[in-house]
């Protein structure tokens, strides 16, 4: 079997062919993503797209580990990164190490991701010094939605300085790559040009070193709402609703099951 990509392999892709990244939360979807992706992220977006939660805040370490184990069974080549959920790392480096060590040991992930810039630099340094590759995540950090006052673009105008400082701090702390979420394209391009590590954009810029989307969003499977930065490459929820409608009609009309779906005394099983 093919050897899986490592965090160092991903870091070495700075400035090369753009990194293809998607989220996944289950084994069958991980298999589909693995065919094309360099990185598969078990995102805490799992709480909203699979569990119907109103934000990522209620997601627990146990949920991330369970979904991480499922995704690991579907991957051969992609680097698996698992999100550290809200409340599992913010107390400080020691708590973050305990949580990250459980994720790495129990799922086989090749790296963890955590949200935050300057104020997370010490924690990122602590983890990377102890053998845990960290993907940083700055700009719009959904776990801070209550402090940010909604899911707004971050780093507009004068506020760009704050995002630039965050990018520099997490890089200096040893992150192997950095997610830039919902920042102006020109700012994403500047960070991509300045930093020695790959930037992975979501609502950022085509000039980033890679792109990531929530797979349920790009498949049109989660269609409660569509952020501007999402492009739908399929309409799976629409297809699924039509399929359930057809099934219901055929059951009511006694058209399903048909002859080819049923068994007789003589026929093959
Ligand atoms: O949880 C998630 O899916 C993420 C990506 C959108 C970057 O953090
Ligand atoms: Na996330």
TrEMBL record:
EC number: 2.1.2.11
Binding positions (3-methyl-2-oxobutanoate): 44-45, 83, 113
Compartments in which it is found: Cytoplasm
Keyword presence, Magnesium: yes
Annotated binding of Mg(2+), by residue: 44, 83, 115
CDD domains: KPHMT-like (cd06557)
Gene3D superfamilies the UniProt entry points to: Phosphoenolpyruvate-binding domains (3.20.20.60)
Reactions mediated catalytically: (6R)-5,10-methylene-5,6,7,8-tetrahydrofolate + 3-methyl-2-oxobutanoate + H2O = 2-dehydropantoate + (6S)-5,6,7,8-tetrahydrofolate
Annotated active site: 181
Pathways per UniProt: Cofactor biosynthesis; (R)-pantothenate biosynthesis; (R)-pantoate from 3-methyl-2-oxobutanoate: step 1/2
Any Pfam family hit: Pantoate_transf
InterPro entries for this protein: Pantoate_hydroxy_MeTrfase, Pyrv/PenolPyrv_kinase-like_dom, Pyrv_kinase-like_dom_sf
Similarity comment text for this entry: Belongs to the PanB family.
The protein's role, per its UniProt record: Catalyzes the reversible reaction in which hydroxymethyl group from 5,10-methylenetetrahydrofolate is transferred onto alpha-ketoisovalerate to form ketopantoate.
Subunit structure: Homodecamer; pentamer of dimers.
Protein name as catalogued: 3-methyl-2-oxobutanoate hydroxymethyltransferase
